[in-house]
Amino acid sequence: MSVQAMSWALSQQFVTESHARHVLLCLANYADQDGRAAFPSISSLARDTGLSPRTVQYRIRDLENLCVIKRGNQAIPSAYISQKDRLPVCYDIDLKRGAQHAPGAHEDVTGCTPEHNGVHATTERGAHRAPNPSINHPLTIHNHKEGDNASEGEGQKAKTIRKNPKFDPASVKPANASEKAWADFCDMRKTKRAPLTLRACEMIAAKLANHADPDAVLDKSTASSWSDVYPESVLPGTSAKNGKPSRHTRLDQVDHTDGLELDVNGNYQIAGDGQ
Length: 275
Fold this sequence. Notes:
Residues 145-174, 222-275 are annotated as: Disordered. By secondary structure, this protein is mostly helical. It has helices at residues 3-11, 18-28, 42-49, 53-65, 75-80, 141-162, 179-191, 198-208, 214-224, and strands at residues 69-71, 91-93, 260-262, 268-270.
């Protein structure tokens, strides 16, 4: 494959018919850098171009008539193909025909004249200094993402610094409360998205400090989904659910023999019934 020949075939404006240009481009693919020794078979060109073999033959004939291609050294394909009856025709492409003029080709100079951006090739007397070209550094998508990630990272770091260290309310349980009652209360607050702070824990511990049944106070707040504790709602000896005095409180302190007397058999009876 010749990059030079294919580049010429793409840029030339001498051959304008679409099928002929396609055949010329594929033929240049088999030539050397000088456009010579291209000997693909008709079937290969038909496969490359997607045209029928007959159409390829017609377009090659047109290219020969335009003197864009000509028959080359037939000994070259003979050196590669042993079957003499199936030798393809070797073509040379005229890369000078139809080539575009390079910048400066029509000027009174040798070779090409380089194009300058904001710079004078030679300094003329009295000529003003050319302005400095602008320096643009376009921000690519990759750099933009890196910048965003850096900004986000700095923002997260700043937020982390501003926030207090992670606080575990279970570590500051009131001294007179059980771990279970306190853990249930903390979980309830967390479920309500109102986690306990150190200051809140200290205030709750102060409220429960002198209460006879702190677990009942915590359980009542947990069951009622209260964010705070209310020791006055649970009086000593009352139920944590309804605050009413329990019928089973201080039963061991009641004198059950009051108003009774023993009979001759050692059984209790109401005083005065034996008379």
